[in-house]
Amino acid sequence: MERTARVRAGIFDRVLAGLDWVAERRGRSAAAPAHLLTGIEGEDAACSHLLRNGYIVVARRWSGGNLRGDLDLIAWQGSLLCFIEVKTRTAHDMSPAEAAIDTQKRITLRRLARQYVRQLPGETIPQARFDVISVYLLPGEAPEFFHFENAFEWGERRPEAR
Q1: What Rg, from alpha-carbon coordinates, does the chain have?
Q2: For 104-137, what is each residue's pLDDT tens digit?
Q3: What pairs with residue 145 in β-bridges?
Q4: In this structure, is residue 158 part of a structural domain?
Q5: pLDDT tens digits along 78-107
């Protein structure tokens, strides 16, 4: 299975490179701001990383329609549904990329995840978790990945009153 995952990830990488080439030829690549292009490049790299590690990616940049925001990646790891937020940086800053996911962002991700789960077929709700992948795209180097499985829960823990 590991070989199959590597082959699938390799094909995915080549398809993305081809699509990037076509977009560049059509002049579309310069239309988006640089920080959005960096984010898309990081999501592409994270998707390949997940595929190489045996995940089955079922959605990218999933939007809930009437809800604000999107889920960067949705993937299955066996029978576990993973909602994955990708944070991309081009340098190692003082604060790590994953620190950018604040309380409001977690609330938005949970709301979108609930919307996604509601539209799944079947009676049973799958077991799910929220992951964060920090991707560092440093010039001249291979991408660095830091995958935080179960980075936060379905509910916020409130501080105990004293």
Answers
A1: 17
A2: 999 999 999 999 999 999 888 899 999 999 999 9
A3: 135
A4: no
A5: 999 999 999 999 888 777 878 889 999 999
Containing domain of residue 89, as a range?
Answer: 2-152
Q: Counting every residue, how long is the chain?
A: 162
Q: Strands 70-77 and 56-63, how do they pair? A: antiparallel
Q: Are 54 and 8 within 8 A, CB to CB? A: no
Query: For position 63, which CATH number holds?
Result: 3.40.1350.10
Phi, psi of 151 (to 5 degrees): -65, -30
The whole-angstrom separation of Cα 60 and Cα 62 is 5
The first and second tokens of residue 20, run together, are: 């990037």
Total number of domains constituting the chain: 1
Long-range contacts of 30-38 (CB under 8 A, 24+ apart): 38/88, 38/90, 38/137
Has residue 160 been placed in a domain?
no
| Domain presence at residue 77 | yes
User: Does the pTM of the predicted model rise above 0.85?
Assistant: no
Distances (CA, A) of 151 to 8, 39, 114, 143, 147: 27, 20, 17, 21, 9
Would you say 111 and 125 are in contact if contact means Cβ atoms under 8 Å apart?
no
Q: Is residue 162 part of a domain?
A: no
What are the two backbone dihedrals, phi and then psi, of residue 47, each rounded to the nearest 5 degrees?
A: -60, -45
